[in-house]
Every structure is written in structure tokens, then in C-alpha cells.
Here is the input.
Amino acid sequence: MRARRAGRAAIVLGLLAIAAIPAGAVVSWQRAEVRLLQAELVAVPVGFVLGLVALSTARRARYRVERSVRRAGEGTARAARLLAWTGLYLAVTGGLALAFYGVLRVSS
Here is the structure.
């Protein structure tokens, strides 16, 4: 039972990590005083931290599944790990894009 709960929490955190960057874009479209670059400078680190927390929670869920007799929640833990890594990959890609933009901006 505890493994399923940890897996579900990791799934929610992974989905939030994936949604962080698009949410930043939506905020910049909805609010005129927030520019896209400003929104993404906040959204990318938030997505990265959420991805790390999701990965940690998914590892805890997998550990609990491995230590249980019934192995309930194995699929949930696997899906949580996939979503956590996806959120981390998106955040790292966003961070690289922001860094590249900064380098181009300084060099011009």
C-alpha cells in the first residue's frame, strides 16, 4: 500500500515537472507584464527541482515494491520513474537553451 502511494506521488510530481515549462509559457501569454524569458527563467529551475523530487520519490516507491511480498505498485513505480526522468530531461534541455541564448545575447 505504501509503495502505491509513493508511486502516485511521484507520478504527480513528474507530471508537474513536465508541465512547468509550458506553464511558464502560458503565464507569459496571459500576463502582459511577464515576458517569456522571465517566465522561463523561473519555470526551468522549478521543473528541475520537481523532477529531482519526483525521481527521489520514484526510487523510494521502487524500493518499497522490491521489499514487499505482493509486489503491488510495480507498474506505478515504473511509470513514475519514466515521468520523473522526462521532467528532468525537459528541464535540462530548457536550461541549455537558456544558457545558449545568454551566450548569444552577450556575444552580440
In short: Helices lie at 2-30, 36-67, 74-107. The chain has one domain: 2-107. The chain has a mean pLDDT of 91.
